[in-house]
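Q: Convert this sequence to structure tokens.
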Amino acid sequence: MFTLNAFVRLTGLTRASARVTLSRWNARGLVACAGQRSAVYFNRVRDQHGQQATIVNALMLKYPSATLCGASVLHAHGWTTQIPSALHVAVEKRRTYAQLNGVVLHPRPVQWFREMNKVQALYEEPSDHGAHDPGTSTTDQSREFTAPTYGLRSLKPAWALADAFADTSGLSWQPDEDDLDLLEQDESEVVAACQAMEVDMQEFLPGLHQAAARPRERLGR
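A:
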């Protein structure tokens, strides 16, 4: 993987000439661009699967704040069988964004990251929740799941769900209750996260909303 700036420094070409050269190489299948306006490229001669295998490296290069969120977290933890077609990642809000192939960016203000850290809604390292290599299986609270976090920070599933419901941008997948597979111990975490993010549970999770109104023992508290 390399950037346009690194290519310019290495070759001594102007940026305009470097772009033309890389465009021609891309057409010949020698390199692949990570995404529109990303200025990040993969060497397809050295690694035929470079784009798929190192997309997260490009993501971290462009967005150091990248945090796995939404549908990607819910599927990884077995809370839904719906398979997202792209990686869903929260990034710090900015004016413009370099789009990366196979990645959906969810802009969040800096304060959002501070709050998520404050309420301990994040898995800071893959080892925090049993993730190792992409697709490896682990067990959490008697539930087997695959956790393809690729070394990214990740929201905990209850917070990923609450955050998706709180998102009004239209970018987040907001599942129906029928789309979710929650264990009893998951429910109390979802209720707490939704309440903290002021999510209207009666609108999004009416069944769980009714359960939350019952005695606390029902939710295992």
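Confidence is low (pLDDT under 50) at residues 127-146, 215-221.
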